[in-house]
Model the fold of this input.
Amino acid sequence: MTSQRVSVFRKEHFNAAHRLNNPNWSDEKNERVYGKCNNFNFHGHNYDLEVRLTGEIDPETGYVYDMKQLSDVIKENVLDRFDHKNLNLDTEEFSDLNPSAENIAIVIHDILRKIIDSKFDLKVRLYETERNYVEYPTK
Done:
């Protein structure tokens, strides 16, 4: 039997506030580029996170990856870090990085990539709203 690669997905949810702002720009330019997302007092999102791992099925367990273990890794390293936080003020990852959905997805990917064995392909999809989402990496 040839080895087959299968993707498994874990969906999680977290809430966080942020402000999109480029400190090198004028207030007017920030307002023009970011609109409501540049609100000086921040604004929040109910983020949905999908983590996809692709790998070979372990012949002993029948799993690509233990989903309980994946859930625990996401909770301990992403949700506990970002849920109910002001990303700009409460997290070191975004102290100097604009917390756009694109940047949040890359940061989450990089956090998980350090923990999850590289034999698994890892992809992060982050929904900022029901209609707007980003995915990293793109391949």
Summary: DSSP finds four helices and five strands in the chain. Strands lie at 5-18, 43-56, 85-86, 121-127, 133-136.
